Amino acid sequence: MNINVTRSSMPPLEEYISEIAPLWETRWLTNMGAKHKQLEADLRTYLDTPHVTLFTNGHLALEGILSAMQLEGEVITTPFTFASTTHAITRCGLTPVFCDIDPITYTLDPANIEALITPRTCAIVPVHVYGNICDNDAISAIAQKHGLRLIYDAAHAFGASVNGINAANLGDASMFSFHATKVFHSVEGGAVTYRDSALADRLNLTKNFGITGEEIVMPGGNAKMSEFHAAMGICNLRHIDEAIAGRRAAAERYRENLTGIPGLRLCPVQPGVVSNYAYFPVVFDGARYDRDTTAARLAEQNIFARKYFSPLTNDSECYGHHGDETPIAAHIAGRILTLPLYPELSCADVDKICEIICG
Ligand SMILES: *Cc1c(COP(=O)(O)O)cnc(C)c1O
Q1: Residue 137 binned pLDDT confidence (cut-offs 50, 70, 90)
Q2: Which atom of ligand 1 lies at the shortest distance from residue 81's CA?
Q3: Residue 225 pLDDT exceeds 90
Q4: Which residues have CB under 6 Å of ligand 1?
Q5: Which of 2, 25, 208, 357 is the most buried (most CB within 10 A)?
Q6: How far apart are CA 236 and CA 178, in angstroms?
Q7: Measured from the CA of 179, which atom of ligand 1 is nearest?
Q8: CA 101 – ligand 1 centroid, Å
Q9: Relative to the CA of 58, which ligand 1 atom is closest?
Q10: Which of 56, 158, 177 best tests ligand 1's pocket when mutated (most atoms within 8 Å of CB)?
């Protein structure tokens, strides 16, 4: 059997069936029905956050919050992310300004932000890559000093917290992805969590054609989560703690096996952070086998790791091959491999993967 980089969690089939069964009575399948309302409420509780607005996916959630904030100008962001982050900024008519990352956590380095601020800068969009939490204290201080909005791409950080604060409560707003490959999912889905309740109306307008009641008040799109997707989210959320515990066991096994191996760099455990164990990235810098050789050696055994994130978004055709402007991100992107990690991954499989890596 193949071991892929991830494997989607599924609730027991009967549980999903009983969750969706009422839809055969109500015939209310989308447009903010009962399941949608329940998932929003369940997420407010689980994430310990006051405001949650669901979307059809994480990407449109990020576009939704950027447009709801009515931003204009430049946005300081990281190139070490999934294409979605940079595309959302661009598709909202904003200009991404790429800032280099911290060499240890691979998140936006606060020390590099201020030099990039111009009179046109309106916001900062950092990413909690792999579930590593950004240096929120330093980044928020810069945002406050310069009057910038702070919106996190928290697609990797569902369930993670720092010093007792859930990642959903950092900055002005956070975007979560509930894609099938994420720690928590609704097949496709996403959400925005935010501090200012006044954003709720505009977020709801952006996802429902700009229509409220019988008025068309703005040119919104369609990014509503269906009842079937919300039902999957409701079921998966009941099992999330078990899922994270399973990931944790596999991640700790990797850490035991790979710590101290020359030329391999693991992400350190961040002080004060309760991780969600979303990914297990390893940087190959002078190891026995380099990154690409290791990926090929694993693939020979039907084990599929991912070069995640490579290329950098600023090193793509779309954004003009400027990876050299963020040298730390470029260095990491050339050497990083994300190993398989999911709740049911056995210690025996982790050991096998580590044996191949270490040769
Ligand atoms: C998954 C992901 C997204 C996009 O989320 P979708 O739900 O797939 O639209 C955005 N940013 C990051 C960092 C992601 O990993």
Answers
A1: very high
A2: 13
A3: yes
A4: 57-59, 81-82, 84-85, 127, 153, 155-156, 177, 179, 190
A5: 357
A6: 10
A7: 7
A8: 19
A9: 7
A10: 177
Torsion of CA 315, 320, 321, 324, to 10 degrees: -90
Measure the CA–CA gap between 230 and 10, rounded to whole angstroms: 14
Dump pLDDT digits (tens) for 292-324.
999 999 999 999 999 999 999 999 999 999 999
Distance 177 CA to ligand 1 centre (A): 5
Nearest CA to ligand 1 atom 10: 84
Whose CA is closest to atom 15 on ligand 1? 155
pLDDT confidence of residue 322 = 94
